[in-house]
C-alpha cells in the first residue's frame, strides 16, 4: 500500500469513526442518564439510521484495508508506544464493529451491548493516546502528514466505489427484518383473551424470540420477548411473553402526608417516571420495515424543527414522512382490567398546545366514542395535589378506584390518617369504545413472567391503524414500571401469513 | 510542547465547561388569546391549575370551564334550552336540581355562585361560541383548544340564538335554538327539548378588559408550580 492511499483511507476512517462515536453517544443517552451533560455536543434526530450508515462505512473500510494490506502491506516504522497504541485501536475497532453488528442482528444483544460500549470507550482512549500524542509531539506538522497531498483518479474512484457499495449495503441492512410465521386457525376456534394461553393452538404456533435491550429496571436493561401469532379469516391473535421479575401495579400512588396528599414519584414531573409506575408493553406496526421503528424515533431534547423541547432529553416519536404507524399500548393498571390495549398511533408531529406542559409530538391516541381512565387528582403538582375522588368506603390500597365506588373529594370528608395511600387511576367507565378499543388484550403475571394475549381485526379500516397482512412489520417494547424507558430491538419482525 | 499542552488543556476545559452549563428546560409561553382564571378570579400561567374560567382576550369574555367533580359545572350534565319564557323546561340531565335541568338552571346557579367573581353569566351567542372552534390536535379531542377548555364533549353546546326554524327532520317541533357541535366543529338548529351541553360566558366589566398578567407574576407563578 502506498503512503497516499493509506492517508486517504486514514482520513475517511477518522470521519467515519467520529460519526460512529457521536451518533452512538446520542443513542446511549436514551438509556444512560449520566451521559446527558454531553448532549449539547451531539447531533439530534434519526440517529440509528446515521449510526448504521457509519457502521457500514467502517466495516467496508476494515475489509478494504485488510484485503489491501494482505496483498501489499504498508511499510511504516512507528515507535513502540504507537505500535502498542495501534494494537489497542485495532482491538477497539474490531470489537465495536462486530458487537454492533451482533446487536443489529439480535445475536446475544444483551451481552454484546456492554461490549459495544466498552469498545467505544477504548476507541476514544485510542483517539486520545494516538492522535493527541501525535499533535503534542508534532504540532501543526501533523496536518501535513494527515492530509493527502494529491488525489489521483484511483483514490477518487475508490472513494466513489466505497460510497456506492456502502449505500447499497446500508439500504439492505436498513430494511432487513426477522420473520414471524402466523399459524392459520379455523374460524370456529375460540381463543379466549385471558392471558392464560391455554388453548392448544398456541402450542402449535411457531415462536419467535427477540432480545430487547436498553430499558429501565430490567436486569441489565434487557428482557427476552417471545411472540406467537395465530390468524383466522378475520382476526390476528398474538401471544407475547416476557421476563419481568416483579409485577408492578403501584402506579403513581397518592400518599397522605403531613402536608396533604402527594403523588409518589421519581421522575414523573419530567415525564420519565421509573419507580412508581405500572408495567406496560407496546407493539408498533408499520407497512415499512426500516430499523429502529421505521424512522419514527427522533433522539435528543429538541430533535424536530419548530417543535418544543422535551423534558427528559430522550427524544420524540413522530412520523415525518406523513405515514401513520400503529401503536398498541397495553398498561397493567390502566387498560388491563378493561381487557384492552390502548390503540394509539404515531403520526406527524402535532401542534404544540401552550396550556400543556407535555408535548408528545406524533404519539397520539386513536379517537374514541366513550370510556376513559382518568387520574385521581384535580391538578398535578410536584408539591402536592387534591384527589379528585375518595372511596365510598375506606378500603385497602387498590390499583384502580372505580368511579361509581367513589365520591367527589371534599376537604371536610378527608379524615384519612397520614400514611394512607389512594389509587391514582379512576375508571370513568368500564372501557373505551370506538377506534381506540380495537385491540382486545389481557395480561397475567406469574413466576417472573408476563403473558399477554392480544387480538385485532386484520383490517379495522381506521386511518390510524395498519392492516395486519403479510409484509406488515412489527416492533415490541417492554416497560418495567417505567413511563418511557422501554426496551427495544433494532430490526423489524415481518409478519408472514399463510392465509 | 508546553504551549501545545496548555492549548490542549484549554480546549478540554472549554468542552467540559460547555457540557456543565445548565441545559435549558422547555419554555413556558403565554397563549395569545386565552388565560386561565381561578374560581376566585386569580390569573394563572398556562401550565398552572386548577382553573375555573378562561379569559378570552379576543372577545373580552370570560368562559366557564367544565369539570368532572359532579358540581353544577360538571361537563357531563345536559340541559334543555329554556330562558324562563321560551323553550322547554327541565328536559336535560343533571344531579344538582330536584327536577331535571334546563339552561336557565345553570345560569341562575352560576350567577348565585359568582363564579370567577362574575354574576352576569349567560348563554354565549352563536358567533361567540363558534369563535372557539379550532381543529383538534388529536383525533380523540373535540374541535376546541382542549388545553384550556377541558371536559368538553364531542357533542352539541347551546347558544342564546333561538326562534330559529328547525331543519326538515324536526319541522313538527316548530322553532328551536342554535347549538355548536364540537365533534364536527359545526352549528346546528335543534329543538328546545334536546338535551345538549352548556358552556356559559360572562361579559367582562370595562375595568377588566385588558387583564394582562405581568411578567414578574407569571414567572413567580411558574416557579411555584
Question: Helix and strand layout, with pairings?
Answer:
The complex is a heterodimer of chains A (499) and B (225).
Chain A: H1 3-29, H2 47-71, H3 80-105, H4 109-138, H5 141-146, H6 153-175, E1 177-184, H7 200-204, E2 208-212, E3 223-231, E4 235-243, E5 254-257, E6 260-263, E7 280-286, H8 291-294, E8 297-299, E9 315-317, E10 325-331, E11 342-346, E12 363-365, E13 373-375, E14 389-391, E15 400-402, E16 406-408, E17 421-422, E18 425-427, E19 440-446, E20 449-457, E21 473-479, E22 492-497
Helix pairs in contact in A: 1-2, 2-3, 2-6, 3-4
Chain B: H1 2-20, E1 34-37, E2 43-44, E3 53-56, E4 61-64, H2 103-113, E5 121-122, H3 126-130, E6 156-158, E7 164-165, E8 175-181, E9 186-191, E10 201-203, H4 215-224
Antiparallel strand pairs in B: 1-2, 1-3, 3-4, 4-10, 5-10, 6-8, 7-8, 8-9
Entry summary:
The complex is a heterodimer of chains A (499) and B (225). Chain A is α+β, with helices and mostly antiparallel strands and 499 residues long.
What does this structure look like?
The complex is a heterodimer of chains A (499) and B (225). Chain A is α+β, with helices and mostly antiparallel strands. Chain A has two domains: 173 residues, Fumarate Reductase Cytochrome B subunit (Up-down Bundle); 320 residues, Immunoglobulin-like. Helices cover 29% and strands 23% of the residues of chain A. Chain B contains four helices and ten strands. The C terminus of chain B is likely disordered. Chain B has 225 residues and is of the alpha+beta class. In chain B, a hairpin with a 4-residue loop joins strand 3 and strand 4. At the A-B interface, helix 4 of A face helix 1 of B.
